[in-house]
Design brief:
By secondary structure, this protein is α+β, with helices and mostly antiparallel strands. The protein is 29% helix and 23% strand. The strands form four sheets. Strands 5, 6, 7, 8 and 9 form a five-stranded antiparallel sheet that branches. Strands 1-2-3-4 form a four-stranded mixed sheet. The protein has a three-stranded mixed sheet with strand order 12-13-14, sandwiched between helices.
């Protein structure tokens, strides 16, 4: 449903209802972040899409949205008997009968993950006043800029992916003085958006469009809107447009479609380096 945000709402809602049938009352989502725009589109079609969160080590559900208690953009409240807390560094902790006893024949990993009855998930998050949990990223993937500012790339990538003209994105900037991003557009939505501006590029290839100034300008405008509420250190100063998507076959994605950051950074090292050199950034591109 990558193009759902740009489709005709009434038509999309009818298609969703026809696809799932009239007997479905609600759907669940897990395993990857659920874009708020997608959740709202399903809700408008009369198909509430409830997002939850958990790990294999936690049996596997920790929190879940549900009928009468649903906040899109969060992964819901803790299940009955489950405790959730946020550590000083932002890591999500959980405690209760759902937590594993330990890793098989791996006491070191067990000791690192289980402390004083709490399981350390490795995920970063926050709890609101009503106990709804939001996942903001993975602790091990935090980027530290040259000024010491810490940035959660997953959160920023989620903002990028909320834009209908962007299909894939990876934020980069470890040890740098500003952030950059590799952007794979949703070419169908982007072409349609350019048509509304009076520019028909249907005959142009993705390789050509990746270098087209109108494409860069449109994406710059959309990114600025998506990032209007983030701090200056979290802004994407420069971005590079890729004509082809990240794939499992190309080893840029895991089989669960998560970014393999080091592989992507190595593959596009020259492109990333050029962006910093053009802006007078620091030397070196590796992490």
């Amino acid at each position: 449903m990558t193009s759902v945000a740009s489709a005709d709402p009434a038509k999309t809602q009818r298609r969703l209802r026809d696809l799932f049938g009239r007997r479905i009352e609600w759907l669940s989502s897990g395993g990857a972040p659920l874009p708020v725009a997608i959740a709202r589109e399903y809700q408008a079609a009369g198909l509430p899409l409830y997002e939850g969160y958990g790990l294999t080590e936690t049996s596997p559900v920790i929190t879940f949205n549900r009928k009468g208690a649903n906040k899109p953009g969060t992964v819901g409240q803790a299940l009955p008997g489950v405790e959730v807390a946020i550590a000083a560094d932002g890591e999500v902790l959980t405690r209760g009968p759902h937590v594993m006893k330990g890793y098989w024949n791996n006491p070191q990993a067990t000791a690192e993950s289980l402390k004083d009855g709490w399981f350390y998930t490795g995920d970063l998050g926050k709890l609101d006043a009503d106990g709804y949990l939001s996942i903001t990223g993975r602790k091990k993937e935090i980027l530290v800029l040259s000024n010491g500012k810490k940035v959660v790339p997953n959160h920023l990538e989620g903002l990028l992916l909320s834009e209908a003209c962007i299909d894939q994105a990876m934020v980069y900037g470890e040890g740098r003085n500003f952030l950059t991003a590799l952007i794979v557009p949703h070419w169908g939505n982007l072409r349609q958006a350019l048509k509304t501006q009076g520019l028909n590029v249907d005959h142009e290839s993705e390789v050509t469009l990746a270098r087209h100034p109108a494409v860069s300008s449109l994406l710059r405008q959309r990114i600025d809107v998506a990032f209007k509420d983030v701090s200056s250190s979290e802004q994407i100063k420069k971005f590079m447009i890729l004509p082809t998507p990240f794939t499992v076959g190309g080893e840029e994605l895991t089989v669960s479609l998560k970014l393999r950051r080091k592989v992507i950074q190595a593959k596009y090292a020259a492109l990333l380096e050029a962006a910093y050199q053009e802006a007078g950034g620091q030397e070196g591109c590796g992490e």
